[in-house]
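Expect sequence, tokenised fold; for instance:
***
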Amino acid sequence: MHLINRPARLGIVLILSVFAATTAAQADDWYPSRYGADDTIGAANNLSEAGVVNAAGLVKLGKTYALGVPTGPDTPAYPPRWYHMTVLQLGASDGATIGSNKATSYDDLLTTYMGVGSQIDGLGHMGVDHVYYNGTPAADFAGPAGLQKFSTHDIPPIVSRGVLLDMTEVMGMDPLPAGAVFNRAEIDAASKRAGVQIGKGDVVLFHTGWLATAESDPEGFIAQQPGLGLEGARYLAGLGVVAIGADTAALEVIPHEDPATGFPVHAELLAKNGVYILEVMNTTDLAADGATEFLFVLGQPRFVGSVQAIINPVAIR
């Protein structure tokens, strides 16, 4: 039975076509990247020589802070990640010596996941339905021998102003409990308390006090944690920050705000905005000293094809 006349049917088809096109546009509106359709370094484009000079001007005390934690076989890590070091003696104990001066040596062989301990997540780490930064399908850049795009070895040195936001002070809990989330309101409150204005090219670190849990409850440190919410991630990305980190294993809050989602902040920052994630940052001493801004320096190891990298950034005041 033809209960709808032809003009009406055409109208319905047109409406459905417009709806489908609108839905597709909404699904794909995060690419191409604001930095260009061929860009591969994301928010690192916001680094600048002027930013380095300005950040260097923050150094007044000459005090340095190692933001990386020691990484070893007991470092908490998401399963099945692990770390194994083998020291090769090469004659150092009772074998042959080298030369007339009888030199001896050791060498080492490290077998590890790159996402153990303090780490940077590159833009090839997390995507949306097999599509990654700048709308790049996984099949176009990823393989068992490494990444052909978005490898962490291609990230420029990140030297810029670092900003520490102490969320324990703002939210009145130390440490913040698992599931405690901070978004724009809390970020603005922490920025106001610190007397800083977050801007383009900055590296933002959150202090939650959660790092202490890594020793007392390593499994709990990984399984759940306080952290950044989705609105807060979008807010910071919109300000043009280069990287966001915290003294937690995932940066984002776990359990997630929406339990049906999986690592939504990772996807928002990495895939949709090209903002790098810094995990397991040791912010304890910075927070204890009341630091709010500093020179942030990261020259990540340049392992070709790497998705992530174990790092030890340095804060200098």
Summary: The chain has two domains: 31-77+114-316, 83-112.
